[in-house]
Design brief:
- The chain is mainly alpha-helical.
- It is built from 13 helices and no strands.
């Protein structure tokens, strides 16, 4: 977990003349940085999904989406340079069981910015361009997500050294990427020719929903068993507990969006069944998400009291909460229960706070040269 937990503050007894050079190097820029793009982009998409709106908010969501798109382009360029100039380190990341799962973040960053393009981008670049951006990013992101969902578990079985106490919520990252595709793909259904094209797209998203859900059900018990048998995660890794909310909130969002896109794409009886399933599945899963949110929050409070430093793990607070916002908003639309709308609004307030705090600390960490310094062992 060294890469994710890198760069907590540490005192220095003497000046280090190589510090500036190390800090400016991209050698230690890992795939976990895509989480910053995901966490920023979800603010725009989640804000657009809220059942309660206010004057001028659309402009805010558009500005946030533009920022996330710029972050994505910058990070893609930096990671390309990383692979060219530091290929040995990049290959080492793939062979590290604590770092390899973060390759799922690449796919989700592409998907999140693409979904935001269609949700709020038309006001910035026009509907046709926004649709084109979403089609490209959804297609590339889905391909990358499916590749990560196969490659990372394969490496974990054949190349990585897994110990009994190493199970971590980050293992879910490559597995939840297809669920993000399943949640955002239905928005593209109306743009496809009626008939087979729409039906294939909708059922393909449903298949990715099942793929991700069943894989999560295999891995999540390992994470819970690790917590019960070996105790809390190291301090800097404690925010990773919020990653469990990702598949929960994203799957609730997915079934709601699939139900929204079903009428006209499939026969009426199937569309009606998908509408019912979105409620029968979404409500219990949202209940479990709230239970896990309470548990994870208690663990984070404990870690703060024990001196948890800032690290890139803090971005784990953002995107998963955002998926719960969109999931609750979807339930509000399908059930007509205003309480789900208020829940989405309350979670959105938590999301904005988390992004503001984490984003500020990240900018300060970059300015001070700490976040790209060689990773430090996680504090316990």
């Amino acid at each position: 977990m060294a890469l994710l937990a890198q760069a907590p503050s540490r005192p220095s007894a003497a000046p280090d003349h190589g510090a500036t050079e190390r800090a400016s190097s991209l050698r230690h820029l890992g795939p976990n940085w895509y989480a910053a793009v995901m966490g920023t982009s979800i603010v725009a998409s989640a804000g657009a999904a809220l059942p309660f709106t206010g004057p001028g908010l659309r402009t805010v969501w558009e500005a946030v989406w533009v920022l996330s798109a710029l972050m994505l382009v910058t990070l893609l360029g930096a990671r390309t340079v990383h692979w060219i100039r530091h290929g040995d380190q990049a290959r080492r990341h793939l062979l590290d069981p604590a770092v390899a799962p973060f390759y799922g973040c690449l796919a989700m960053a592409l998907l999140a910015v693409g979904g935001g393009a269609l949700a709020v981008g038309p006001g910035v670049i026009g509907h046709r361009a926004a649709l084109a951006v979403d089609v490209v990013l959804w297609s590339v992101g889905t391909a990358a997500g499916l590749a990560a969902a196969v490659t990372v578990p394969y490496l974990m079985v054949t190349r990585h050294r897994i110990t009994a106490d190493s199970a971590s919520p980050v293992w879910l990252l490559p597995l939840v990427a297809p669920m993000v595709s399943a949640a955002l793909g239905p928005a593209l259904v109306p743009a496809l020719p009626p008939g087979q094209w729409q039906r294939v797209m909708l059922l393909g998203c449903l298949a990715m929903f099942g793929m991700s859900l069943l894989a999560t059900l295999v891995v999540l018990p390992l994470v819970v068993a690790r917590l019960f048998r070996h105790g809390p995660l190291p301090l800097t890794l404690t925010p990773a507990l919020f990653l469990v909310l990702g598949p929960l909130g994203q799957s609730t969002t997915a079934v709601a969006h699939l139900a929204d896109a079903a009428p006209g794409a499939v026969d009426p009886s199937m569309a009606q069944a998908m509408g019912a399933f979105s409620v029968l599945y979404g409500v219990p899963v949202m209940g479990f998400a709230l239970l896990w949110l309470a548990l994870a929050t208690a663990m984070v409070v404990r870690a703060f009291r024990a001196g948890m430093p800032f690290a890139m793990t803090w971005w784990g607070f953002t995107f998963p909460i955002g998926t719960c916002v969109t999931g609750a908003a979807g339930l509000a639309g399908h059930t007509g229960v205003a309480a789900f709308g208020w829940l989405a609004t309350a979670l959105f307030a938590v999301l904005v706070t988390a992004v503001a705090v984490t984003g500020t600390r990240t900018v300060l960490g970059l300015a001070r040269g700490r976040l790209l310094a060689p990773p430090q062992p996680p504090a316990r």
